[in-house]
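Hey, I'm writing a tutorial for new members on how sequence and structure tokens pair up, and I'd like a real worked example in the thread rather than a made-up one. If someone can provide the structure for the chain below, I'll link this post from the tutorial.
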Amino acid sequence: MSAERTIASNGYNGRILHVDLHERITKLEPLTVDVAQLFVGGKGLGAYLLYQELVPHLDPLDPGNVFIMAVGPLTGSQMQTSGRWCIVTKSPETGAYLDSQVGGYFGTALKGAGFDAVVVHGRSDHPVFIVLENQQVSLEDAGDLWGKGIFETTEILSERYPGGHVSAIGPAGEQEVKYACVGVDRYRQAGRGGLGAVWGSKNLKAIVARGSWRENPADVELFRGAVRAMMERIREDKTVRDRRMYGTPMWVDVVNEGGLLPTYNFRLGRFAQVEAISARSMKSKIVVGNSACANCAIACGKRTRVSSGPFQYPELEGPEYETIALMGSNCGIASIEAIGYLNWLCDDLGLDTISTGNVLGFCMEAFQRGIREAPQIRFGDARGASRMVKAIALRKGLGDLLAQGVQSIAKAWGKGTSGWAMHVKGMEIPGYDPRGAFGMALAYATSDRGACHQRAWTVNAELTGELSPPLSFAGRARFVKEKQDLNAIVFSLLRCDFAPCPDSVALDLLNGMTGLSLDRDGYAAVGERIWNQVRLFNVREGFSRKDDVLPARFFDESLNSNDRMRLKRDAFATALSEYYAMRGWDEDGIPQPAVLNRLGLTKNRIRMPRAEERGKY
């Protein structure tokens, strides 16, 4: 089979669209069989394209940066949770690779519009939005939308384009806040790392996609049998039933009981007022209904509303667990209504709630410690938090510095604040303290986009004893490595990582749709290839072992007054070296020729762009 042959069936459209906002021109590039077989779609395809397109060491907010929207061969299919898609770029917050996986309905519409990926280049000289439909693209003026929140922008464009699905940025993205997000279908977010800032730097307000896609499996019997098997797993799974009942807030009590719920800027792992922000409290006080992404029987989304009091808001999907942890216990805020309001505010302004909650908690601790430059905001001050959220989104006053994230704030303030600025590579840490689940220390340190729980989540395995002994690094390196590889392909197919789907079923879904004949080793190799491709990008940007580090607080301070709940530097270093060795990387975390050759990541396959091609097409 020729490597140059275009793949345009069995899960693929066969088209990669390039859009230059500055020149206002577009170009189609074929998706070849070779690239599809190596990288599948979604995250993998985005990682491949990003490596090809970018000049090394480019400022992420430079017009030469690109962002890539990609779907996978299972997007829009009968498979449960098939509505997912992803955005890939170079992160303004970290300077590293960034991808964000998103639910909702936009992904199905993007695939229906006729593209497997859309690569956006350049910077428009005035605000615009993109419309994708019937394999066509148009650039429209967004002057009347600039300055509006995500909710209003989405409503306006949904009325203009009936049946269309909208992704948009808010004022935070327009102001290039380093952790601005992209809002999708109103209530979903491409949240982490500053994707919204990249859109803002390009004067891009929104993207509208319209279209429907009809699946055409290569092996109908194999594919539909796998669809039925996955659906049966969903029906039988207890965690799915709990998610349907409570959504991701179901983890609040579990993580608090385990002693690793971020509290008071990660100083404690248990929140004394946890009942006020628990899933039960949320369900009884603010939940008004359930919601689901495209073709999903899990329906983990919780629609909420607060109709009276100081924290009222009309409607929201959320808050999710991460928001409750970072904007609730981490900030000492013991009101689910207040957390919901802060979530609603962030979603409309276009701010990542994980990073925002970290910034607020950091500022609260700085004020408590008497850091003169810190804002006068105390733990538990929800009204003060809402004022700071608005200041950050609009870069007003101190909000201009806070918009840079905790790493930059600590550098500006000094006075030892860097030791408790809770980030990895500049990305703020999510809702699990690794002193209570040591595997998360490796997961955060080695994540491709900075501190992230989605690449390898060890918490449940550690709390239930699947990974033992507790509070140890034993077995964690292998567990993290295998989960990272697995999720790399999950995010490339694409499907939701909440859906129970054994590798054997996922393999049948992929082979049945695409006509590939991968075995289990070949399936695992795809994920490993994608993970190494992303590491190559980060290495090219200057990242190495020196960056796979954690905040000093995790090593210097015990959690919950329990000295066993403290990371030891030598044990962490040993586990990191073990992880590198399993990956075939050297002691600096650089992938070695043997593993790259085995995975097909040679210069002949994955070439550097020639100088005249960089930033062009």
